[in-house]
Design brief:
The protein is mainly alpha-helical and about 170 residues long. The chain is about 50% helix and about 10% strand.
């Protein structure tokens, strides 16, 4: 049986392979992060200090307020639950501004104001944010933990040969 729309079948196959590749790439990076965290937490084999001792010394205990970008919302519960299971004395509490909706900018501003221990952001810090922190005597830094991507899908019936970055920016 021949497919009636070979371009659609090819497009679907490429899209599926792209999604599988993205999941595989994310999984490999998550595994690498896990290995790096284990190296950070675990003492050398010849040390008499236990794993629990390494955690007691290296990880601050208590409840830590954080907030910010909604990009982390999809994984927030899973990550927080896993941290709670692995390190019961290190607790995270997601905190929102009572008026403004959650966003990278709101989270960073709350961090600068001293209302959060750390902020999740789906973008780099701006010069204005860095300067605002410095004016308050704070030195904030950003630590990338993931990379984001946008996949553009165009229906084959549109017969587009391509889109430029300015065109995509205009669409979004």
């Amino acid at each position: 049986m021949q497919p009636k729309q070979p371009k659609l079948v090819l497009f679907t196959l490429l899209l599926t392979l792209g999604l599988i590749g993205s999941v595989a790439y994310w999984s490999m990076n998550a595994f690498r992060l896990d290995v790096q965290l284990q190296r950070w937490l675990v003492q050398p084999e010849n040390s008499e200090e236990s794993f629990a001792g390494a955690i007691d010394r290296d990880i601050p205990f208590g409840t830590w307020q954080y907030g910010g970008s909604t990009a982390f919302a999809a994984i927030r519960d899973v990550v927080d639950r896993q941290i709670q299971q692995d390190i019961p004395n290190f607790q995270l509490a997601y905190t929102q501004d009572p008026i403004r909706p959650p966003s990278s900018g709101v989270g960073i501003q709350m961090l600068i104001e001293g209302r959060l221990a750390f902020a999740q952001a789906s973008r780099p810090l701006t010069e204005e944010e860095i300067n605002s922190a410095m004016q308050r005597g704070l030195q904030i830094r950003q630590i990338p933990v993931a990379y984001d991507a946008i996949v553009v899908v165009v229906h084959p019936s549109l017969q587009l040969s391509g889109l430029t970055i300015p065109q995509l920016v205009g669409i979004y």
